[in-house]
């Protein structure tokens, strides 16, 4: 009876969220920041709780996720968070009258980008390639190459650790270019090619696509390549001003699943295992891999560690009066102490509210959920006010994918996001370069200004 009540309430939350989302003019088949975030939250931070509750996932049980009351608490926090977010959506849409367009067909297109923007984008690509080469020169080995050479799973894990969590330099600056900038350029070149098919545009897209795909795979992490593909689909749908259709969903699903099958067999040491084991591993990672660590956040704080009160927030250059607490690493060590002895620097990222719970308890969950609702909705609202050229389409698609990461990263990392700041500056710069009034036709602007002044004088 207790389990049946849980299942009923579990399903009711999903129904309520969908109803409230529709009341706020959000359409789940139209790729927007709020809609794709909700999809991502359901898949990575909600649905898997059902499997955890019934102990269906043997691997998660072996890690210690076996206390049903603790899992019930996890479900409660996850439900509160998503409900608060959609309530904020409804308030902004109906109380403050900030309604989103139901489709991109209602948004104005702009003309072709000028040569200044195209040249700047090409230079940005060259800069990114230079940073990638510099990064590769600073790591002992490239995990993807080591895997292709036949490295063992232990050797591959160590190589991946040295290239990511154990990297001695400022990894975020390198990741800015090899991940975010190259991904953004891939979206931009795809949108430009769809809007104006030409040999130059498609060639530039294929080059950026190849570079972005390699950097997404080079550390043998699986999610970056999947996110890149999802972003490309968003670019296509936004550019063509259409919604997700059955054919598109099937193609995306088949492509993603095939890629995951390949990557899991090659990167996770499952080449000799039956295909059903690989499939189970994929579903385990997809539905419980992100929400599972949240169980240990709840278990760890404040029982084994006092609330952090902000100590897990980024502290660039040590400007704040606290020593940063690397929460994802510490939680991984709490989950799997054997990793310390193996010399592998692990990481246990999870849904955004877990980090706020570790810092401020339940109040942190409530506050962060309200903030996420406001931020995601308003970003989409203001983007919709812009003319959609390839730069804006790429920026919107990048933000859609970035918002999806809230199911696996902290709110502080999302807000204090160097990549977001940098790309926003790039986009503003590109819009400035594309302004016909300020650069490409100054005489027209001067004459127009003179006519306006004369008109004002005549009226006075």
UniProtKB/TrEMBL annotation:
Organism: Metabacillus bambusae
Top-level division of the source organism's lineage: Bacteria
Keyword annotations from UniProtKB, A to Z: Membrane, Transmembrane, Transmembrane helix
Transmembrane segments: 6-21, 33-55, 75-96, 116-136, 173-192, 199-217, 223-239, 246-264, 357-379, 414-433
The protein, known as: Oligosaccharide repeat unit polymerase
């Amino acid at each position: 009876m207790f389990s049946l009540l849980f299942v009923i309430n579990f399903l009711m939350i999903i129904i309520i969220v969908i109803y409230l989302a529709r009341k706020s003019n959000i359409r789940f088949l139209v790729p927007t920041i709020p809609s794709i975030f909700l999809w991502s939250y359901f898949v990575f931070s909600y649905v898997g709780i059902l499997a955890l509750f019934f102990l269906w996932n043997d691997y998660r049980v072996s890690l210690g996720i076996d206390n049903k009351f603790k899992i019930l608490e996890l479900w409660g926090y996850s439900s509160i968070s998503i409900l608060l977010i959609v309530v904020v959506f409804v308030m902004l849409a109906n109380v403050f009258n900030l309604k989103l367009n139901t489709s991109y067909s209602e948004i104005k297109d702009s003309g072709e980008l000028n040569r200044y923007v195209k040249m700047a984008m090409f230079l940005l690509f060259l800069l990114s390639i230079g940073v990638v080469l510099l990064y590769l020169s600073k790591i002992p080995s490239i995990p993807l190459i080591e895997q292709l050479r036949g490295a063992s799973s232990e050797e591959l894990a160590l190589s991946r650790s040295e290239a990511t969590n154990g990297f001695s330099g400022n990894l975020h600056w390198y990741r800015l270019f090899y991940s975010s900038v190259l991904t953004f350029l891939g979206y931009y070149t795809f949108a430009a090619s769809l809007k104006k098919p030409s040999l130059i545009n498609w060639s530039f897209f294929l080059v950026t696509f190849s570079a972005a795909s390699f950097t997404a795979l080079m550390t043998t992490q699986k999610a970056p390549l999947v996110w890149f593909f999802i972003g490309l689909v968003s670019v296509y749908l936004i550019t063509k001003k259409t919604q997700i259709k059955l054919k598109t969903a099937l193609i995306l699903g088949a492509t993603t699943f095939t890629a995951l099958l390949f990557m899991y067999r090659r990167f996770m040491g499952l080449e000799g295992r039956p295909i059903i084991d690989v499939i189970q591993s994929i579903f385990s990672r997809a539905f419980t891999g992100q929400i599972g660590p949240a169980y240990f956040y709840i278990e760890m704080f404040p029982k084994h560690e006092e609330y952090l009160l902000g100590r897990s927030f980024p502290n660039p250059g040590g400007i704040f009066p606290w020593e940063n607490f690397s929460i994802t690493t510490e939680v991984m060590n709490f989950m799997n102490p054997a990793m310390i002895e193996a010399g592998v620097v692990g990481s246990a990222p999870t849904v955004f509210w877990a980090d706020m719970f570790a810092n401020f308890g339940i109040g942190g969950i409530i506050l962060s959920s309200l903030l996420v609702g406001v931020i995601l909705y308003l970003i989409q609202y203001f983007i919709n006010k812009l003319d959609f050229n390839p730069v804006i389409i790429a920026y919107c698609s990048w933000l859609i994918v970035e918002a999806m990461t809230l199911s696996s990263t902290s709110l502080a990392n999302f807000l204090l996001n160097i990549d977001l700041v940098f790309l926003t500056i790039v986009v503003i710069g590109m819009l400035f370069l594309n302004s016909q009034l300020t650069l490409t036709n100054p005489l027209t602007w001067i004459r127009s200004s003179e006519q306006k002044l004369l008109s004002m004088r005549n009226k006075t």
